[in-house]
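Hi,

I'm pasting everything inline rather than attaching a file, because the server keeps stripping attachments. The sequence lines come first, and each chain or strand is labelled.
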Amino acid sequence: MSTEAPNTSERPLDFVRQIVAADLAAGKNGGRVKTRFPPEPNGYLHIGHAKSICLNFGIAREFGGQCTLRFDDTNPVTEDTEYVESIQEDVRWVGFEWNDLRYASDDFDQLYAWAETLINKGLAYVDSQDVETIRRQRGTATEPGVESPNRSRSVAENLDLFRRMKSGEFPDGAHVLRAKIDMADPHLILRDPVLYRIKHAHHHRTGDKWCIYPMYDFAHGQCDAIENVTHSICTLEFETHRVLYDWCIEKLEIYPSRQYEFARLNLTYTVMSKRKLLELVKNGMMSGWDDPRMPTLCGLRRRGYTPEAIRAFCGTIGVTRYNGLTDMVVLENALRDDLNKRAPRRMAVLRPLKVVITNYPEGQSDELDAINNPEDASAGTRKVPFSRELYIERDDFMEDPPKQFFRLAPGREVRLRYAYFIKCEEAVKDEAGNIVELRCTYDPATRGGDAPDGRKVKATLHWVSANHAIDAEVRLYDHLCRIEDLSEVPETEDWKNYLNPQSLDTLTGCKLEPSLKDAEPGSKCQFERLGYFCVDTESVPGKPVFNRSVTLKDTWAKIQKKGG
Ligand code: ATP
Ligand code: MG
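And the predicted assembly:
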């Protein structure tokens, strides 16, 4: 077997892949690689999960291994089948397929049997103290813990109590099962950790069969072992759990999976904890898990993100053991790069200002050739209609322009993209002094966008023909949070105070070129000069809704500097 890891990205292997490659080279695990992606079905997946998905499924794919999708469903209270389904949809959308689909709850019988094994070996006991007392007795890094008075219970008594816990005899919190390790171990996690707790709760899969549920530490590694996972890859906060992971494997004499930790993804200007995202959905601050402002995969999908961009982003950020904060711009650039190659260009006017071409005959129109994608010659051209009445962007006109403003102004000539030069002769105002219409002339000799006499203009504007335009709603999005790093908000303060009140700007009466009439929900294009847009899932024929996925350039940095 080849020990050369395929490295399509031509980047050096990250440290996890180096470990996998070295293990394969050394013939470990029988030359086999098996990973798993283990979400808890208590919310929708977010972009942080995509990092884990690309790592776990990516390694399986690159090294000829296997990857399991395993639902870590040991906490019945917060879990739901809605999440189980969305997670599968999202993993597939990112571009991966699992070799098998499993649930930690598939293994509840085995986990229970292993708990009895530990009791029989004198390595676990039932403690009847409350969890608060147990926590207090744990000690600190400098002080040993206090042994529970129940620590010396006999095997028979422990078995009896544990079985009665299982049969439902006791209320929640009456007892727990603890490992019997060492209350003075320098690893706090080894100071008799809780393995099972009583929870009279309905489970989304096992129903009411169980009223005791294993803790994460007594489920995760064991499921890894049952599945013969070779590399169990998790985020750094589980580093301190690794000694317990290894202890369980050793004492139960089960398959020796190994745990490796990497840094989780944190992104600027957003929130990434499922708990916080759930809060936003529950209290109606977001329209749902798929609100295009959410960093969830379904939110990003609805916003117009592509799986290609998500995967490219995950490749760019790499995998390290350094906990940092990744700039949102890196994610946005991944989308820009992808859509720049693929998205057809269209014209749309978001804040329309009427332009009347006074020397263009009434009732007439002509069609101009427009290039679909300058990055992709095979995308060809389309026709855009031109007529006497047009719309341009309100921002593209100034009555009294400052020096740096090169767009349309009274007496000035500009190019209309793919069409003609026009010159503004007059700005018509209403009684309140608002500009309601521009009266312009056009030069028929400049058809296609160049003047035969070689004269130049300083600006090219996008436009649409008024009679041919279709009306649309366009939703512009900005960062979910108004501060870079939400982790800096003190616990005493409500993090929601730092949400960006201007994260959504809904524009109605936007004017689109007619070729967009039948655009399907999910389809993407670039509105020239404005950004990349995507048809929203709420869009219906006759009432189109577009989302701005991302602007053409990163404007946030500039705005910030100006504001500061
Ligand atoms: P959250 O804190 O958002 O609720 P979680 O860690 O509880 O996330 P899980 O469903 O347990 O969510 O995560 C499944 C897998 O995804 C785990 O292996 C976890 O380590 C990984 N993961 C979760 N969040 C991130 C992140 N921000 N970056 C990288 N991996 C992540
Ligand atoms: Mg978790």
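The pocket of adenosine-5'-triphosphate (ligand 1) is lined by residues 38-40, 48-49, 51-52, 72, 234-235, 264-265, 272-274 (CB under 6 Å).

If the labels don't parse on your end, tell me and I'll reformat.
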